[in-house]
Amino acid sequence: MAKSVTFYPLGVGDSFTTRHFFVNSVINVDGREFFIDCPGYIAKMLHQNSLHGELPLGIDRYKELFITHLHSDHVGGVEELAYLQMYKTVNPIKLYGPDWLLQDIWSHLRPALEPSPREGSDIANFDWYFDPIAIGETHDFGEFTVSYKYTRHKPRTLAYKFDFGNFKLGYAPDTGFDPELIAWLSDSDLIIHEVWFGPTEVLGGDIRNLHTPIADLLTLPEEFQRKTLLCHYADSAYTDHPENPSENIGSYRLLQQGKLYKLV
Q1: Each residue of 46-78: b (16+ CB within 10 Å) or e?
Q2: For 6-49, how does the pLDDT look when each residue is reduced to its tens digit (9 = 90+)?
Q3: Residue 203: its pLDDT value, please?
Q4: What is the residue-wise DSSP string for 194-250?
Q5: Which helix (H) or strand (E) holds 150?
Q6: Residues 212, 249: contact at Cβ < 8 Å?
Q7: What is the DSSP string of 79-131?
Q8: DSSP secondary structure letters along 5-35
Q9: Which residues of 171-180 are buried (b: 16+ CB within 10 A; e: fewer)?
Q10: 86 burial type by CB count under 10 A (0-12 exposed, 13-18 middle, 19+ buried)
Q11: How far apart are CA 10 and CA 21, in angstroms?
């Protein structure tokens, strides 16, 4: 059981945001930090966070990282992390995900990272840069366990549930509206769930194949709404202040970038 847990969103915006950074977070469990996803422009994001956020972070803090899926707004920065170890690897960053996802990450990174600049070797491999650790549908980290479920999103995407013994955190940053996923998340004490504002009919089809319109979320019980913070939202969600969203969001609240949430 964890004695102290904080949750800190470094980004909250959708893939078109200009006001925020893309959705990614860090969880601190008894002093051990776990990042969830890693979008591009890490240095700029961390610099802005140091100026405006409640918890300054340096790039050296990236030691353990969960991945949800391979869209660039979630993994664009993984290549940037690898650059830090281009010439020499010391304590490679631990990457967590199902085995297939870890293999896909290396396939994604391989064209840029396999040609090696290190003396004595022309070819690098995944282990030079990272320590890929495959996790099953439930994985025990000692102070807490993590389980995952697939979401309604493409490419294959994971929602995570963190069980700290006395508190559960559900995390689903990219998903179409999925009653089965909602049911799986519902026993969490705090839920981070994506939201889509705007028209559902978009070029090429229905946005519900990828994202969750606020109208669908508003059909859920108030109990679920009160414990859910919305992320992956468009810049249009704001008027002048984050406490005054331009859309009706019922009993939900918008997840705030750079705000430290104490869970335990």
Answers
A1: bebbeeebeeebeeeebebbbbbbbbebbbbbb
A2: 999 999 999 889 999 999 999 999 999 999 999 999 999 999 99
A3: 63
A4: E-B-S-SEETTEEGGGT--BHHHHTTS-HHHHHTEEEESB-GGGBSSSTTSBSS--T
A5: strand 145-150
A6: no
A7: HHHHHTTSS--SSPEEEEE-HHHHHHHHHHHHHHHSB--STT-SB--HHHHEE
A8: EEEEEEE-B-TT-SSSPBSEEEEEETTEEEE
A9: bbbbbbbbee
A10: middle
A11: 7
Q: Is the dihedral of CA 98, 99, 100, 104 positive or negative?
A: positive
**Tokens 């479920």 -> residue:** 149
User: Phi and psi dihedrals of 238, rounded to 5?
Assistant: -100, 150
Number of domains in the chain: 1
If you search the block for the tokens 């010391």, which residue do you land on?
A: 90
- Candidate from 68-82, 106-120, 183-197, 202-216 with smallest mean pLDDT: 202-216
Q: What's the domain range around 214?
A: 5-262
The pLDDT assigned to 86 comes to: 84
CA atoms within 13 A on the CB side of 36: 28
Task: Count the neighbouring beta carbons within 10 Å of the beta carbon of residue 211.
Answer: 24
At 239, the pLDDT band (50, 70, 90 cuts) reads: confident
CATH number of the structural domain spanning residue 201: 3.60.15.10
Question: What is d(CA 40, CA 27) in angstroms, rounded to the nearest whole number?
Answer: 19
Residue 75: both structure tokens together: 């993994």
Burial of 238 from C-beta contacts in 10 A (0-12 / 13-18 / 19+): middle
In tens, the pLDDT along 126-159 reads 998 999 999 999 999 999 999 999 999 999 999 9
Query: Hey, how many other C-beta atoms are within 10 angstroms of the C-beta on 224?
Result: 18
